[in-house]
Amino acid sequence: MSARGRLQWAALVPLLAVVVLAATWAHHEHPAVLAGIAAALVGAVLAAVHHAEVVAHKVGEPYGSLILAIAVTVIEVGLIIMLMASGGDGASTYARDTVFAAVMITFNGIVGLSLLVGAAKHHLVSFNASGAGSALGTVVALATVTLILPSFTSSAPGGEYTTFQLGFAAVASLVLYGAFVFTQTVRHRFFFLPVTSDQYGRATGVIDEEGGEHADPPSRREALLSLALLVTSLVAVVGLAKLLSPAIEHGVAAAGLPYTVVGVVIALLVLAPESIAAVRNAARDRVQTSLNLAYGSAMASIGLTIPAIAVATLWIPGDLWLGLNETQVVLFAVSVVVAILSVVQGRAKTLQGVVHLVLLAAFVVVSVQP
C-alpha cells in the first residue's frame, strides 16, 4: 500500500469508529451489531498505533518506543476500567489478570518472536545489554511491588492491598516508571539505540534512528494531524470496549473458561499491533528497538495502569485483587530468570526465542485450564 493509501486509511478509520460508537451506543445487543463494533474496535486499535508510529518517527528513537507503549497502555487502562465498572464475577481480578497477561505476552511473546525472527534471518541478533537489562530490572521491581507482594501481605485478605498499601504501590510505580523514562530519554539515551555488530554478534556501535538511512520524518503538520487522530482513536477504543465488554464476558462464560481468560483476551487485543511492530524491527536487525517496545510496554502496563486503577477504585465499587496466585508467581519467576539469561550477553540465537515462546504457551495453557 502506498504512503497516500496508508494515510487515507488511517485518517478514515478513527472517524468511522467514532461514528459506529455514536450509532450503537443505545442499542448494541444484536450479534451483527456486536460484530461491527468488534471490527471498529480492532480498526481503531490499529489506527491508534499507526498514528503513534507517525508521531514517534517525528520525535525519533527511543522516544518512539515510549510513545507507542504509552498509547497502548491508555487503551489497556480504558478497557480495564470499563470492564471493572460493568461488574461481574471476575471484576475484582480484571486489573491483575490483564496486567499479568500483558507482562507475560511482552516478556515471552514479543521478546520470543523478536529473537526468533531476528536470529532466524540474521543468524545472531545483537542489542545493548545495559539498556535491555535496566528495562528488565525496572519491570521486575514494578511487578514485585504491585503483583507479588499483595499475595504475601497480611493486613488485607487474600491478594488485596489496604488503601495505604495501594497508594504506596501507585506512587512507587510512577516513581520507577518516571526514573526509567528519564534514563531512557535523557541521561543514557545511548543505551537504547539499535546497535551494529560483527560476525560473532558482538556490538560494535550504535545506529541513531534519527539518521539518514530511514525515510524522512513526517512534517510538523502531518505529526500534529496524527496526534489528533491518535486521540480520536483512543476515545473510540475506550467507548467501543465498553459496548463490547458484556459480550466478551458472556463469551468466556459460555465457553466454560475461567474469568482470567478475559484479561488474556484484553492483553492480546491491545498488544497485537505492538507485537507486529516489534517483529518488523527484528526482521530489519533492530532487535534493540523490539526490546524497547516489549519491556517498555510491560513497564507502562504496570507503571501507568496500577496508578490509574488505584484512582479509579475511588468511584468503582468492589474489591481489587492484585496478588498473583501460586501458578502465576512460578511462571513469572521462571520468565524473569530466562529473560535475564537472554539479555545478559547482549546477543541471542533462535534458541532463546523458542524458550520464551514455550513459556508463553505454558501461560496460555494454564490460563485456559488452571
TrEMBL record:
Keywords: Membrane, Transmembrane, Transmembrane helix. Residues 32-185, 226-368 form the Sodium/calcium exchanger membrane region domain. It comes from the Bacteria. The keyword Transmembrane applies. The chain crosses the membrane at residues 32-51, 63-87, 99-120, 132-152, 164-183, 223-244, 250-272, 293-316, 328-344, 351-368. It is found in: Membrane. Pfam families: Na_Ca_ex. It is a multi-pass membrane protein. PANTHER family: SODIUM-POTASSIUM/PROTON ANTIPORTER CHAA (PTHR37958), SODIUM-POTASSIUM_PROTON ANTIPORTER CHAA (PTHR37958:SF1). This is Ionic transporter y4hA. It comes from Myceligenerans indicum.
